[in-house]
Amino acid sequence: MESNKPGDDPGSLAAAAASFPLLVYDHGEQPDNSQTVLSVADGSLHTYQLPEMRNFRCLETPQGLVLIIDGASLQCSLWNPLTCEKMPLPAMDEALPEYCRCLVADTGSSRPEWNPDSLVLVYDLSRPELLMCRIRGGATAKWVRQTYDMGLYEVPGKPTTERAIHYMAAVQGVFYYRESTPNTIGALFSFADDPEPGLELVTFNAKLPELDRKDGVTLRATKTYLLEHSKDLFLFCLFYKVVDSTLELEEFGAYMMDLTKKEWIEVDDIGDAAFLLGPGGFAASCLATEHGLKKGCVYHACDDLGDSNDYEIFDLKEGTREVTGPNQDIPVLSRKPFWLVPVHPDVNMNS
């Protein structure tokens, strides 16, 4: 495994373009403010000092771009880590919540009747609020807030809270999400006939996949990830069982949404593709062979392995699971590892 020292690189990820996707271990405000970057394709490990990750809040997206927000001015930009290109966006009027995720929906692949402008969408994981901005809105562009209603979350003995979206994917200009009820899918359609961007919500029923065990017990998916692949909506499920009061993985599976039948169809062949999953419901896809990954595999870098910096590789065709990771110690992290993925071919940053 290759490794370099802080300062060996000018601070740009462009030199690592051939090694994308990258698993990033951010060390935060340490003396050299560096990031350790692992290429899961070739196992190389490098250390960078990225200026975009100093004094900026960074939200990575499944589309490959990163939303960066200046901590002082709240000025925003979309950053392409592959090319170092930045596209300015308007400043926000207040700091983002601690827990949120970001998506980019470009309408180059959307249906004509849905034809909105391209949007950056930030969704709060703790309250029902969306924040959106047109990518090519020009001088009139601004961040617009929109609330929604998914009902209340009630736990005996604890304050009642409003439910919020936790899993979302952008597919052909539409934002799909899991509703609070297990078998409901929501879709947010953006519209362009209003001076400001807005989202219209619709829902439909689609039974969440279940696992029927030989002993007659039916398991519901314990963890799910929504993602876009090849202009279709996919769901990846992890099924766990309880053994001696601890969770053990029983099975995993990938499913494609049939929007005509409104049902999930299990698939064990996703072609020359790989899925990349991370904390907070992050889920992306990319071409496997082009980027040196295993075809038809799911790379799962989440907290299921405790404090380990390892990640899992699920082979959908073979039904196997492999645990791997960096072969040297990683310094203390300021946040959980996250993915930087190749920029989606449908994303256009031209103004």
What does this 3D model show about the protein?
It contains no helices and 29 strands. By secondary structure, it is mainly β. The strands form 8 sheets. The protein has a 5-stranded mixed beta sheet with strand order 25-24-26-27-28, with no helix packed on it. A hairpin with a 4-residue loop joins strand 22 and strand 23 (263-267). The chain is globular. The N and C termini lie far apart (40 Å).
What is the approximate shape? Answer: globular
Content-based structural category: mainly beta
Spatial order of the strands forming the largest sheet: 25-24-26-27-28
The largest sheet is: 5 strands, mixed
DSSP helix fraction: under 10%
Pfam family, one: Beta-prop_KIB1-4
Protein name: KIB1-4 beta-propeller domain-containing protein
Organism: Urochloa decumbens
Summarize the structure.
By secondary structure, this protein is mainly beta. 0% of the residues lie in helices and 44% in strands.
Features:
351 residues; mainly beta; 5-stranded mixed sheet; 4-stranded antiparallel sheet; 0% helix; globular; KIB1-4 beta-propeller domain-containing protein; Gal_Oxase/kelch_b-propeller; KIB1-4_b-propeller
Record the SSE blueprint.
Blueprint: E1 22-26, E2 35-39, E3 45-48, E4 56-60, E5 66-70, E6 76-79, E7 86-89, E8 100-105, E9 119-124, E10 129-134, E11 144-147, E12 152-153, E13 161-162, E14 168-171, E15 174-178, E16 184-191, E17 198-205, E18 210-212, E19 218-220, E20 223-229, E21 232-243, E22 246-258, E23 263-267, E24 273-277, E25 283-287, E26 297-300, E27 311-315, E28 320-324, E29 338-340
Parallel strand pairs: 24-26
Antiparallel strand pairs: 1-2, 1-29, 2-3, 4-5, 5-6, 6-7, 8-9, 9-10, 10-11, 12-13, 14-15, 15-16, 16-17, 18-19, 20-21, 21-22, 22-23, 24-25, 26-27, 27-28
Organism: Urochloa decumbens
Protein name: KIB1-4 beta-propeller domain-containing protein
